[in-house]
Write a structure and sequence with these properties.
The chain is mainly alpha-helical and 185 residues long. Helix content is 62%, strand content 8%. The chain contains nine helices and two strands. 14% of the residues are buried.
């Protein structure tokens, strides 16, 4: 695919994703617009390098933390994440923005198989707190259960409306998880 067609494909994909997100959470607020603009500006400063799978996974194996962003409304995005984690080193810990840190006891019970999927979704208020389709995330959670992968919630309802505060909260939650895991190792 030539660069012009690729650019158009990416633009079309972005527009389709944006429409799906707006259908779920509504139109872009002033805060979200400012957040998106800062994000896009930051991304434009980066130099992007493509690499093959061999080199990608060599770099991933050396990393303590791998941050993966996804298009929450796109099923293919979470499927891509699942393909990635299947190839990652073990043990693997998933820190999930779709779950609140306060829901950890419920998350732990679900991951151990002590709670049905229906009860899990109800107790973490999935639809209210996250809103994006559970079907997009279900395969990742099922894989994590089967492989006894630790899953942590890193979001918080108290900072959810403030996007930068939410990102800072999530970063702090990831630091706590890393510190706890280092102490337990």
């Amino acid at each position: 695919m030539d660069s012009t067609r690729l650019a158009q494909f990416r633009k079309d994909f972005y527009q389709a994703t944006r429409k799906q997100v707006e259908a779920i959470i509504g139109s872009e607020s002033k805060e979200l617009k400012a957040y998106r603009e800062r994000y896009e500006k930051e991304l434009s400063r980066l130099s992007w390098v493509s690499m093959d799978q061999k080199h990608l996974f060599a770099r991933l194996k050396k990393a303590d933390i791998v941050l993966v962003g996804d298009f929450h409304a796109q099923k293919q995005s979470s499927r891509g994440l699942l393909r990635l984690v299947r190839k990652m080193k073990s043990p693997l810990i998933l820190a999930m923005e779709c779950l609140n840190e306060s829901d950890q006891p419920v998350v732990d019970r679900f991951m151990r198989g002590e709670l049905s999927e229906k009860d899990f979704l109800k107790q973490v208020s999935w639809q209210k707190n996250w809103g994006f389709p559970w079907e997009n995330y279900r395969p990742l959670f099922k894989w994590a259960q089967q492989h006894q992968c630790l899953v942590y919630g890193i979001n918080s309802q108290s900072v959810k409306s403030k996007l930068i505060a939410r990102d800072q909260y999530s970063a702090t939650a990831i630091k706590k998880i890393k510190r706890r895991r280092l102490i337990c190792a």
